[in-house]
Amino acid sequence: MPVPRVFIIRHGETEWSLDGRHTGTSDIPLTANGEKRILATGKALVGDDRLIVPANIAHIYVSPRKRAQRTLELLDLGCHDRLPWSSSEPEHPPEDITSNARVQITQDIREWDYGDYEGLTSKTIRAQRTKRGEGSWDIWRDGCPGGESPQQVTERLDRLIRDIRERFHEGDLDEKEKGDVLLVAHGHILRAFAMRWIGRELTEGVNLLLEAGGVGTLSYEHKSIEEPAILLGGAFVVDIVNRG
User: Residue 65, exposed/middle/buried by CB under 10 A (0-12, 13-18, 19+)?
Assistant: First the structure.
């Protein structure tokens, strides 16, 4: 039986993500191309014989931002319940309902609050700091003036990780047949989440990439909740053929 996993899914492409602009509190919609790519991701990775098996999902956490929520809609996981932001019931016929996971909007997985740097590119930020005679800038070390520090981000992510482990992964991992968890959120916060999942400090630097619409996987080594790990790659699941 597979060890429970946490899938981290970054929202699809937006005009600001294309430009490299820091998008925290701003609610920028997906581009048409961003929506198409998320649909393709769902077809490739979601299904009974795919990486993400809807029936095995215990819970889904999603950012309050509409771009993340739209991304979850387009993945088409076949959720039984109405999505929290939707005014209508799921349109899936009964045979297409494949997941009983509850969808929860949480502020703990919202994007980093960029404060004064909202809407700016890293190049613009560094140019402004140079003009003001300020030193170099690294978000993982310095955070954002008027926004969040690495410590503030760490506190809310650690709270979310505790919630996941206590509610869905505590106990014998061999018995967690339907213990997968999905997070649909944003680039900086999901990379920070991956670091905190394995107990690394954000101030050490985060040399991880997660493209718009990208999917990452976290789990545990040796089927032990005491050994959280980043799953770099998994084998395809195939039927075992007995040879006589």
Answer: buried
Catalytic residue at 111?
A: yes
Q: Give the mean pLDDT of the chain.
A: 91
Q: Which pairs with CB-CB distance under 8 Å and at least 24 residues apart come from 140-144?
A: 140/192, 140/202, 140/203, 140/204, 140/205, 140/206, 141/203, 141/205, 144/112, 144/113, 144/114, 144/115, 144/116, 144/117
Half-sphere exposure at residue 119, Cβ-oriented, CA atoms within 13 angstroms = 5
Tokens standing for 50?
């795919």
- Among 13, 73, 111, 148, the one annotated catalytic: 111
Three-state SS at 152: helix
The pLDDT tens digits for 174-229 are: 766 679 999 999 999 999 999 999 999 999 988 999 999 999 999 999 999 999 99
CA distances for 93 relative to 46, 50, 56, 102, 103, angstroms: 18, 21, 20, 18, 19
